[in-house]
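ARCHIVE CARD
Drawer: 12
Card no.: 0347
Subject: one protein chain, sequence and derived structure
Cross-reference: see card 0346
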Amino acid sequence: MEHHTRIKVYYEDTDSLGVVYYANYLKYLERGRTELVDAQGKPIQQWNREGFILAVYKIDITFLKPARLGDVCDVVTRFVSGSDYRKRLKQTIELGGETITEATVDLVCLDAQLQLREFPPGILE
């Protein structure tokens, strides 16, 4: 399973050097994960209302090249592996077909009281 999300870099995303501020890449990756879940047929807010909250457990990110103001990037999100309690995704941010950021993201599922619970069937499989 793979999903693509287009992201345009706005002025608010950049730092004093005119490149995307590093923390904003995390936001772009989050958008990619949200769009992947939504594309599976049920919006993430509905999963949340049903008591299934997806949370980042661990992220390993490498910044290879910067994106700049006006660039249009592609966030590619791929499901890699998982168990009942943890799912692993590989994500890249690409610019013109070249990978500029890569990340491995481990997710867990929490209940409304923020306690660990099993992932429901039909999400990130």
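Annotation on reverse: The chain has two helices and six strands. The first strand starts at residue 2 and ends at 8.
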